């Protein structure tokens, strides 16, 4: 023990870890009324870590070649010891990541945490959301199943509705006129190299901004210091008399992560094919479109919107407008009140938006 | 000595749980990464005698390694491991000289596998084989 203590002491003199711990962990105070919803960010960080780790492991056996991709995935599932565990963790994890991300965004909206001065936090988070959707879409193609092939055909096809550059854009995305081996190559590169790095960088930016400006006070529960931020100069929002991040809030983070892992492994072990339609188990056949091809659940609402509007361009524009509105929400919604019950118009839009999204999703599923 | 407190007991329990968790995560991970067992231990390789050209050689996969069967000018059949005992390169059968040459560091072996020249420390390993009705079975 004395040796460990001596090494610790030696490092302490040179690195000043205690000061860092004091500043970033034990002395990092959070609002007294902070709630469990704030721990979803940590859950997402853990999910991203699992996705990176399982993704690297899958690269050991996966072959990004249109001739061999499907059989290499089958080999991972059937022959490699615990290959099913690694692959199902990656596939289920991607679905869970989108779900947790949606919850994270909803809680931020509900508690008004996106409001000034946290516009940059919201914007980086919003870009992250889009990157996660992109990485899910590109990863979808890689097993080269009928589902992958035709879902990608449909998804890339919708880019064709954009005037003037549409056709060119679709061909650019596909690397050819149709989805084919060239598409697999570029989606693979984007999925394993470009997007993970972009997401990691943006997560870093997201956390840096959070750390600089300070955690927002939830609008309900115990009252503490009032927010006197005027918007004219930078001020770290401290929470004197608040809860230390370590050990108190880290324990909440750990609790939420454990609950998440319990749900995650319950799906992986007991219902691994929850997110897999039967077409996911048939190798891609460019000459035969399967009946009733549908996108993943998180694209169902978008898919249904495209079907509702008679003109594909109009459908895309409506979605683009909705996404732009969401991205710019902190710049549009300038009111200082953050309590949802004191913002009836917002609350109506919030609940109405969720109901509309779910309705479109269910409609898309059964149509 | 200090009497164990509830805190140390819980600490030990937590450490045990963490260790069990680490093992539970490490076992599938190591199994996943471990090279697959080919299941070819004790497997035999068979091919017709006519596969071997006159005073030539036939190389084949043998239990995850490489074997060779040669027919000498005298018509004698020999089965050997083709792995050079020096650094593991594959030896070549030199038809004209009637010997094996390892191209990596110029080791030379007689048709029986004994070292004639060069750095190899041991002769080539002999492989058991039988010839039944014109079919050679190695193993």
UniProtKB/TrEMBL annotation, chain A:
GO terms for biological process: respiratory electron transport chain. SUPFAM superfamilies: a domain/subunit of cytochrome bc1 complex (Ubiquinol-cytochrome c reductase), Transmembrane di-heme cytochromes. The keyword Ubl conjugation does not apply. Keywords: Electron transport, Heme, Iron, Membrane, Metal-binding, Respiratory chain, Transmembrane, Transmembrane helix, Transport. Residues 235-367 form the Cytochrome b/b6 C-terminal region profile domain. The chain crosses the membrane at residues 36-63, 84-110, 122-142, 188-210, 257-276, 313-332, 344-366. Gene3D superfamilies: Cytochrome Bc1 Complex, Chain C. It is found in: Membrane. GO terms for molecular function: electron transfer activity; metal ion binding; oxidoreductase activity. GO terms for cellular component: membrane. It is a multi-pass membrane protein. Residues 7-219 form the Cytochrome b/b6 N-terminal region profile domain. PANTHER family: CYTOCHROME B. This is Cytochrome B6. It comes from Geobacter pickeringii.
From TrEMBL, chain B:
SUPFAM superfamilies: ISP domain. The keyword Iron-sulfur applies. Signal peptide: none annotated. The keyword Glycosyltransferase does not apply. Keywords: 2Fe-2S, Disulfide bond, Iron, Iron-sulfur, Metal-binding. Coiled coil: none annotated. It holds the Pfam family Rieske. PROSITE patterns: RIESKE (PS51296), TAT (PS51318). Its cofactor is [2Fe-2S] cluster. One of its GO terms (molecular function) is quinol-cytochrome-c reductase activity. One of its GO terms (cellular component) is membrane. Belongs to the Rieske iron-sulfur protein family. This is Cytochrome B6. It comes from Geobacter pickeringii.
